[in-house]
Every structure is written in structure tokens, then in C-alpha cells.
Amino acid sequence: MAVKCFVGILLPSCSRMTEKKTNMASINSVEWRSICDKFTNAQRLTETESRNDPENDPFRSKYKARELLREVYCSLKSFEAGDREEDAGGENCEQRPPDQPVDGQTEDAFSKGFSGDSPAGMRAAKLGAVEYYLGVNHVDTEELSAGQEHLMNCMKMLEKCRVSSENVSLFIHVRNQLGILWAGRDETETAQGFLESAESIYHRYMKEDGRPPTDMTEYFTTEENLLTHQERTKRFELAYTHTMYYLAQVYKNLGENERAATYCHSTLQRQLQLNQFSPMEWALNAATLSQYYITKGRYMEGRHCLAAATVISGLAGEVPSEAAAQESETESERREHLQQKRAEIARCWIKYCLNLLQDAKKLLEDNIGELDTDRQDELKRARRQEEEEEEKGRKSALLFGSEDTFDSIASVEEKVMCLFPLDFTEARTVFLVGQNYVTQAKEYFQMDGYVTDHIEILQDHSSLFRALAFFEEDLERRCKMHKRRVDMLEPICNGTGPLTFYSDSKVFGLLVDVPSVCSSADLNSRYYLLIRRQLMFELAETYNEMMDLKLTLANRQADNHSLDGHTIKKFNHLCSASAKYFQMFLDSLCSPEGKPPEHLEEEVLRPALVARFRVARLHSKLISSSPPVQLENLNRALENYKYVVQYCEAHPEAPAAVETELELSTEMVGLLPLKINRLKSRMAANN
Length: 687
What we know:
Elements lengths: L5 E2 L1 E2 L19 H18 L12 H28 L31 H22 L3 H15 L9 H17 L3 H21 L20 H25 L3 H18 L4 H17 L3 H16 L7 H6 L1 H36 L8 H24 L9 H8 L10 H21 L6 H21 L3 H19 L11 H4 L11 H7 L2 H27 L9 H24 L13 H20 L5 H24 L8 H28 L1
Antiparallel strand pairs: 1-2
Helix pairs in contact: 1-2, 2-3, 3-4, 3-5, 4-5, 5-6, 5-7, 6-7, 7-8, 8-9, 9-10, 9-12, 10-12, 10-14, 12-15, 12-16, 15-16, 16-17, 17-20, 20-21, 21-22, 22-23, 23-24
């Protein structure tokens, strides 16, 4: 009787192949070798030939592979029909477990079903393997429902079998593929079930058996082409490495970030051990992982990831020269790829140095943001113990590398500390490392073509100077560091730098009808509004910090009257510049008619109210010998203080965002009218 093959999509009738066969055909029979040849050709078409398929027929080779796999499947089914006639009733001692939902769970996988090395077990594994490859084939050709059906058919085949060295690899591979499939549909918890099942099978197999398992390709391989134990182990471990990689993605999507980081770290380590990785892809993944550790304050792990990324990226080779890139498209693409990925790793190093300095600042600053010298001395005394703890941590941590790379990784690590810098000398060392990576990153992310990236790097460079300035005790030198920040950001913010002339799809993609070249005013006001707001606010704060430093220097003298004209002029310039940029920020929030918004959106609520508060404070600080000018400045200060108070009274959500500023504004709204009235009285008396 003919055996029809309904697998995903209707397979061609297998009736022409139903003549009686015995024992799935002899391992060396002509029929079996024909099956093996078809399977091998299907693999070649899938893995090699498909890379050269034309753009207008991208799945040509995979469709051919599918037909060969269908033929293999029908041949196996015909052998199975013959075997049933020969050994009917001969295997009643090994019963298939009762039907149960196929959901990736492994409760009975090790205890019920056919033995993996029995004829029935091998038949099920071989049919399941073809179902698996057909499933992957359909997924690759974007036929997901058919792919899922084939993969689930594989799962049902495996229900008949106990997990053993003959089939454990297939047990894991099919669950990996189903995990990927469901994750792609945003069914994260379903994907989690299949992948955790694969993980459980791996661990239990390694505990209870541990032999190098049969690879799925060996089901269709002649005896002389069977894999070595070493190659079997390598492929099996690589399959489990994929399980861990996919689980890392699943846990990330579920918000289990610590667990995701652990799995990602283990995946990277296993890839190195198995020597199965692309250097640049591995390096970028390690650098990305470092950013998680940095946000958790785990700088030793973050530094180790970045050092490993730097070393492993070097295995990709030298960047082709510009001349070589011009002569060869392949070399041009390789040059672009290597430069971009290494620049991205450099940006991760910048974040490491910046966050280390900023976290050290938080640890050392007092309640007014200045260096707490008592706290500094206390931490320096504890440094020895901290260094010992770091060494213990290194010994217990999961470190990357092998004998070939470990020393190189350690050498990179030695160039920058992972403990918090406690004084200017230590902070400057971290700063210089970060600044070096700023230079590297800017070589690729230039203004021409990478506007947003370039500006973000400049902002990070500015932040490095700001963090370093905290450790500088000399106020004049600290002022010069802030001046460096102004010099790098102001030309871009004001449209006098290269920003004026270059477009960036990453920015323009958020807008419509964007010309590639615009006038300075048009481009700056319309297409870079969010960027300019950031720059305006940072410049305003930078000038404000410089003004505070000048004010501190002035307060060390007797009183303002002792200041010379040059110092007063400089002080007023800093005040006015800060107020100008805060006001520019506020103006950018207004309607085209210049009307301030009645309601501030959450993302600009605090910045806008802080800007109002700072503008008020700055106008009250301006030094002038002219009473009318003094009166004008005080009135503008009062106007802005009132705005903060009145807005918070009208919007219940606002006070929590600016508690300190609101308290001081309320106080000044009460005090400034008295000061204004006294000034008016003096002016009237003088007239």
C-alpha cells in the first residue's frame, strides 16, 4: 500500500518507492548510498551554492535542496514500510509513550520511548532529522508556518525515543530552532520554554552519559565518512553554545538583564574555547556586554570585556589601505567594516572611562558638589584592601581568552584602572585613555555622514573634561578645562561649524522632505532641534560653572569693589553667555509665534524649569554700577523666579521635579521685591 507523505506542504507521492526494503537498507547498499548522496547535495546547496543565488531568485538553491530532502524523506518512509512488514511485533518491549503536548518539555525524554540505538529509535531519529532540515529550509525561505509544522513533526518523532548519544544533538537543535522561530514572533515565553528545555537536556545528558554524540549529518553518511569523536564533541558543544546565545536574547527581552548578561558572557567564552567566532562580531558583542557591567558599577568585568574586544578585534587583521580599497570592492567593504566596528569599540571604551570618572565624582563630592577631602582620605586608606578584593575578584571571575590571548588581554587591562580614581593624577590617567579613544572614534565617525554620532562623541569628550575638572584643585586650571568644552561645542551649536552643511539619515529619518543641503538657519532650526537643545543646555551649564568658579575666586577677595574692570567684564560675560544659552533653550520650546508652552512635556519639564531658575539667578548675579541696569536685571530675575513658582502651582506634577529650585524660587519671590523697592528708593532720592 502506498505511503503518502504529508509534511508541512504535501510531499510528492512516495508510492513509487514502496517496494519492500529491509533494515532501512544496508549501510553500504546502493539505495542507501543514493540517499546519502542526495542529503549531501542538499547540504551543499543550502550551505554553499545558496550564497551565489541571484537577487531575482534568492532561494533557488534552497528550493532545490528542499526537493532533495523530500526525496530522502520518501525513501526513508518506504524503507519504514518494508521494515514494518518484516519485524511487526518484534519490538513490543519498547513502547511509545502516551501522546502528550509537544511544548519543549523534557519530563519523560530520558526514561520513556525507544532506545536511541534500536532500529525503531534510529528510524525515528532519521525521519525527525529530515523533518528538522525541511523545517529550517522553510524558515530560511520565509515560509514560517510550514517551517514550524516540519519542526513540530520532528518533535513528535522524537517523542518515540529516549534521549541518547544517537539523538541528543537533534533533541537540542530542533528546540533551538523553535526557540528562534517563536522569538521572531515576539512570543518570548514560548521561545523560553523550548530553549530552557534544550538547556536541560544538555546538562542531564552530560551528567548521565557525556559521550561524544552522533551528529545529525551522520544519519546520512557512509561509514568511511563518519566524524571523529573530537569533531562530534565540537559540533555538539557549538549547538549548546547557540542555546545559550538565544537564551541570552530571551532573558534580555523578558527584562532579566543580569541573567541575560551571564548567558551572553558564557556564550562568548564558549565561542573562544571552540574557536567558532567571527573576530569583529565577537569583539563588538563583548564591548556591548561591557556597557551592562559598567551601568552596574562592575568595572573590573567591564574593563575585561573591552580589553578582550580590543585583542580579539585585532585577529581580524589590518585595515586595508585607502589605495587598496579604491582598487578592490572587496577590500573597500572590508576597510569600511573594520573601521566601523573598531570605532564602535572605541566608543564603548569612552563610556567606560567617562562612567568611571563620573561614579568616582559621585563618591567623593560633598552636598554642594565639591571634593570632600575627608572622604578622599578615607577612601585612600581603604585602597589597599580594595586592590586585594580586586585580585580575588579576578581569580573568581569568568575570564575570556586562551593561552594565546590571555596575556594580551591583561596587557590592555593594565593601561586603565578599574578602581575609582581618588585624586587628579589617577583621574587624569583615566581621562587620557578616554581621550585617546575619542580620537580613534572620530577618525571614522566624522561629521560628513555621521553627524549625530560625531556630536555624541564630542559631548562625551566634553563630559570627560567636566569629570576631570572636579578633581582639579586649581580653579583657574579648572576654568580652562571648561573653556575647552565651550570651544568644541559652541561652533556646532551656533551653526558656524561643519554641522551646517551635512545631512545624516539617522537624524533626517525622523522627519519628512529633508534636503541634503540646507542653509545654516534652516537646517539648524528645523532638523537639528533636539541636538541643538542638548548643546544649548550643556553650553549654558558650562558657562554657568565657569561663572561659579570666577565667583568663588572673587569671594576670596574682600568684596566686589576690589575687582578690577577686566575681572568684572569677564564675570559678566560668563553670566550673560550662560543666560543666553538657557534662554535659547527656552525659546526653542516656544511656538512659532514665540509663545511659551502652557504645558511642558515630561522629557523637558525639569530642564525647562531649571533653565528658568538659572536665568533668574544669573540676572541677579550680574555686576553693574548703573542703577537702571541693576533694576532691569533684578526685574528679569524676579520674572523668571515667579514663572517657576506659578508653573508649579498650576501643575501638580511639577514640584517633585524641581524641589530645590522651587524652594529657592519661592524664597526669592519674597525677597527680591524688597530689594527692588530699596533700589527704586535710592534711585528716586538721587534724582
